[in-house]
Write a structure and sequence with these properties.
12 helices
Length: about 450
Amino acid sequence: MSTPYPDTRPRALTVSELNHQARHLLESSFMQVWVEGELSGFSRPSSGHWYFSLKDQKCQIRCAMFRGANQRIRTIPREGDQIRIRGKVTLYENRGDFQIIVEHLEPAGLGALQQAFEALKVRLQAEGLFDPAVKKPIPATPKHIGVITSPTGAAIHDILTVLQRRCPAIPVTLYPTSVQGQAATSEIVQAIARAQRHGVADVLIIGRGGGSLEDLWCFNEEAVARAIAGCTIPTVSAVGHEVDVTIADFVADLRAPTPSAAAEKISPDQQDWLRRLREQQSRLSQSATRLLKRLENQLGHLSARLRDPRRELQEKAQRMDELELRLHKAIRERLGQQSQKTGHLQQRMNAQSPQRTLKAAVEQTAALQQRLNLATRHLLRQHQDRLQHVAQTLNVVSPLATLGRGYAIVRDEQGQIIRKAADVHQGSRITARLGQGSVSAQVTEINSLPE
């Protein structure tokens, strides 16, 4: 019998093992890459994921962007778009496809951002959000100013510096928010809502200092534009430098070229106020002097015409004494007449006094009340006797009395009274009503009597 030679060939990898090792090698070699090219073969299945290829003049690579990442993209890319992607190089093991898992996608260059800006501008303008007729008036003298910007940026410093110079008496509330980056859009919207709930500011400055188009992009977001347009407080947009224009500038009630200019536009100048106050003070002083002079002249004329008041007071006092004496005399005479009249009326009232009639009526009422009480007690006694008799009769015929003697009322599952054994079958559930309480049971045996 021959002995087989041992297999000295190297161990072969399975396809799964090879693909797994290749995937591990790719992912460990390329942590994260940026790639630019032309989008091709774009598809969007019902899962919400995006699948496409990125190509140049010589090569192409497959890409997958899952729903959690593509939901942050403002504009869905189209076939032939030049785009930049950021992602991880990997291998789809099931098919052995070399691909990139895309985490971020953006148009190549700034042209796409400008196109998105123009598209949103046209749409919001068509809805009437830029219409001057819907703009709220900015108060000439704000009582409280709200500022929505970064607490660490140059914008809040410039605004506070201008307000301190022009009118430091106006209180300012800062609603801090990011003004750049992915979180800035939602934070600005929340800050606008917070200012409205707070309810103290009668004008809002919304903005930041200068920057690139990407830096200012949160002020071109639709959510921010609609929040500003729907704000119940008058708003002033102060984004970037004078040459920077954002969607927020169009929907706000007033546009200022810079944050400093916004503070200048909405705040009164205290120096102008002081000048006007001095003018008013001077005019008031002159008017008061003229009035006092005129009153002094009138007082001199009246003093010359005024009589000595003591003589007139003496005459009035004498006249008052005479009237007092006449009044006392008239009162005494009237009291005498009324006293005589009262005496005559008292005599007539005594002759027609109803006391005797009332006394007889009271005695008769008492007698009738006594008779009524006796009749009521007698009638109640009769009814009690009849009620007791009826209760005894009912107790005799009551099924509860029968149950109390050891009998029971048995019902089937439908609540029907069981009168004979044939009305149930083995396994049925029955309920027995006893004299006190009830029991449930299951039929295990049936013994029917012949009818």
